[in-house]
Amino acid sequence: MHGVLVIDKPEGLSSAQVVARVRRELGEKSAGHTGTLDPMATGVLPIVLGEATKIAGFLLADDKTYVGTLELGVSTDTLDRKGKIVAEASWDHVDEQAVRAAMAGLTGEILQVPPMYSALKQGGKRLYELARAGQEVEREARPVRVDRFEIEMFHPPRLLFHVECSKGTYVRSLVRDLGEALGTGATLTALRRTRSGRFGLADAVPLDGDLKAAARDRLVSPAAAIDHLPAWPISDAEAMRVAQGQRLPLPADATPGKVWRLLRDSGSLAAIAEAKPDPGGILKMGYLRVMVTG
Known about the structure:
- By secondary structure, this protein is of the alpha+beta class.
- The chain folds into three domains: 89 residues, 2-Layer Sandwich (Pseudouridine synthase), CATH 3.30.2350.10; 133 residues, Pseudouridine synthase; 60 residues, PUA domain (Archaeosine Trna-guanine Transglycosylase, Chain: A, domain 4).
- The chain is built from eight helices and 18 strands.
- Strands 1, 2, 3, 4, 7, 10, 11, 12, 13 and 14 form a ten-stranded mixed sheet that branches.
- The longest helix has 12 residues.
């Protein structure tokens, strides 16, 4: 079983727990997810199975879309409603125009400090492990990109919002920064991922459904999962050469960094290749992933 099965993750489970359940129910040894969702969050969670685990890195890089709710005037240690309240402030002075202006200031290429309750490592330990031990450490701000951060519904102190962002963006931190900009504090109360790259809610199946039937009917092939990359058709004989570590001649339009999907006669993915300059300045072919799937 090689491909991507998109799960509509329920609330209360970690992404790793969802992967473990899919692996167990499908009897598949190789499985992984392509972008963590917090236990509180729901929505689109692509699960890579079998040989498709080799393309996980390309899916991790995908942009994400979310809808969520937040509450003004409340700050928690986890930055969401599951945490302990650490501060409260008045929100009476805040109007919709002020919120929209603050959201605009958090749009574009920004620097974001990740939350303490996250899986990032520092000093060999997960940040959430340090947080649970009562420690707070300095975290370096990281560049992220927020393409859209807008109000969908304004019923203070609750707001419904929409976010479109790059990988690595913490929506909880975005909400925290909004609360700081407004001078009220804010915490995330609900979050649903509606899109991860090419996969949306329409592609997702419920975790409590018949996953074997879903895998038969809804599994996305590795070639289709990364169809944003240009296709380079190759013969089965050329695919065998690639599998043996041999190189193919570069296409005439090759430029440094250009990446292709190498597709067999059957349409299955044989490899992913990138044009790279060697020390002498001559382009050569580098194979990022080899997928001999039959």
